[in-house]
Amino acid sequence: MKIAIIGTGNLGSSIAKGLINNKSFTSLYLSDKNTSAVKAFENEDYVTLTNDNGFAVQKSDMVIFALQPKHIGKVLESVASKITEDHVVISVAAGVEISRIEAIVGSDKNIIRVMPNTAISIGKSMTCLSANEKAQDKIGLAQDIFNQLGTTMVISEDLVQAATVICASGIAFWMRLVRATTQGAIQLGFEAEQAHELATQTCYGAASLLIESGRHPEQEIDRVTTPSGCTIEGLNAMEHQGLSSALIQGILASFEKINQLKKN
């Protein structure tokens, strides 16, 4: 598979790192108007750096547009004539609907909307995919690629906005919870590095327990809490301060914002 990534900001670079680490291509073209932004990849085997988006499209089978919503329209217009029916066009631009992409490159093109998160750089992304009618038989191919970079889920397009909040923005939400746990550990007497390790490994263990056991979070909480114990005391104090409510409100606020972007 010959893959091009147009745009190498944080997400585009993360996808590139994941593809390189997993050797998920025969050739990879990284295109950015500022090639110095991708200098870190210049010595990688089978990776070509360019500032010519058209060249990258022509050389590839799959084109991943990792651009901000405000930029993707102009870039798509500049390369539309070079996109053929054989290409698989993937957009990771938040809030940009498939119909908007079809209006530029044509509904006869294979278009897949993909929402990964930055954990894709270490092969741990939760990635959601949705395809237009033309690309229904290509979505498995996209899954094959992104399954090498984490876990995938095919969803209807009307859920992509919500998936962006839960999976992409969600990385930041979980980071903030880990940071707060670290700060608490420091206040209890641990050195910063120790506190960080305690927080991150405990977070990793909690997620792993849920994934491997398939149990509901409350079932695992019940295994930790004892009558009149310190765990339930801490949990109740957090809930009295609005922990769950604050997290849900943050998710809803992010969802409202991404819907505003969709209208622009």
Number of helical regions: 10
Structural category is alpha/beta
Topology pattern, helix = H, strand = E = EHEEHEHEHEEHEHHHHH
Q: What is the CA-atom radius of gyration, in angstroms?
A: 21 Å
Ranges with pLDDT <50 over ≥5 residues? none
Counted beta strands: 8
Distance between the termini: 34 Å
Strand content: 15-25%
Question: Helicity range of the residues?
Answer: 40-55%
The major β-sheet equals:
8 strands, mixed
List keywords for this structure.
single chain; 264 residues; alpha/beta; 8-stranded mixed sheet; 10 helices; 52% helix
Report what the structure shows:
The structure is a single chain. It contains ten helices and eight strands. It is 52% helix and 15% strand. Helix 4 (98-105) links the parallel strand 5 (88-91) and strand 6. Helix 6 crosses helix 7 and helix 6 (160-187) runs antiparallel to helix 10. With 264 residues, it is an alpha/beta fold. The mean pLDDT is 93. It has an eight-stranded mixed sheet with strand order 3-2-1-4-5-6-7-8, sandwiched between helices.
